[in-house]
Amino acid sequence: MRKLIAFLFLLMTAGESYALPPKYDLRELGRITSVKHQGIPGPCWAFAALGAMESNWLTQGLGKVPDLSEMQVAFYCYRDARKNRNFSSRIKSGTLSLEGQVFMAAAMMSRLSGPTDERSLPYSTTLNDSEKRALTRKAPESFKRSMRLREAYFMNGNSTLSDSDKKRLIMNHGAIVVSIYSDLDSYHTKGNHYTYFNNSHGNITNHDVLLAGWDDDFARENFSPKPERNGAWLVKNSWGTMRGIEGGYFWVPYEQYVSGGTAFVVERNNSRLRHYGYDDLGFCKGVKYSWCANVFRVSGKMESLREAAFYTLANNAGYEVRVYHHGKKFPSRPVDGEMIAGVKGTQDYAGYHTVRLPESFTLREGEYFSVVLRLEGGYVPAEGKCERYSENAEVNRGESWFSADGVKWSDGFGIGCNACVKAFTVLR
Q: Which of 118, 179, 355, 418 might form a disulfide with 278, Cβ 3.0–4.6 angstroms?
């Protein structure tokens, strides 16, 4: 898993050059939702991921304040009835106690398996076996989807992601997910603020939280021990008001080791949207090819092909997406057939991206089409078996393909990988 993170989170380049305010607080702008209480160790990653999505919804001004179901994400990432959609973990206690990663939530959302509202599936840490079995008999898609994930930007730790970069992400997209090392004995009350500073564990982290703002003038005297300079991040936690945390928030100095920095971009839900993809567990590894593709068979009577989605493995990554139509004959190569759409460009950040095709194309039941991705950099995103993460990945013949030159193609079954390339259609 550590190799996955190291590979994915590559260098980030600075974005816009506009001036940053010395103080910023998403709470004052109404761009962040209320503090939740996870109740038990484990599901902080689900609370952080959905909190970031809620914050992005409010930052875009898309409608009323959302309250998403952490239960849906924390439960179904491990207890889906379809085994190939279940992540694994070295922790063997109850489902909601399982540790996770924010890009597990991204993988689940990218296949339109959520999110749903809290009222549809309330959070509970006291499910009995009967209640767990009842949930397992359902699919996560059986709950009404509240919004759709469109982008997920994955960043690196403090060594490559500057304070200014984090601040721009917060201003542009809302709260961002980061990981810190949480030690209850390191929280320190000073005046009216609740503060935390502990870098004794190096680059080891164990708790996902949200960065919700900053204050460049926050005095270093508020911390114990004292950092070398003023300035601190405002952190939204997921432990309610436990242990005196003021309103569920606390401050960490800029010098605190903070890993990651994931921003989400969401949009309003379209109930007629249909997903095509084989990477149920999302991006797991980079494989040394320049091209990858998936061949899909249309399942609805008539659908309109609108969008493609994929992962990039580095910032400022150049990409090209092509779509081929094969009629009702299964192709020998994903590029055999009529090319019906193409789009190319550059993605600023490593992560998950959805691109609109130049024009829609009508597809009919039983027809085959392929989505082909070319990425600069010599590696393409794939789902495959990774220890303690994606052992349940399932690869079938004739679905995913990989190529070094776009001419000679190898079946992903022999490589043991699914291509992380998706298509989205609208039912007609």
A: 418
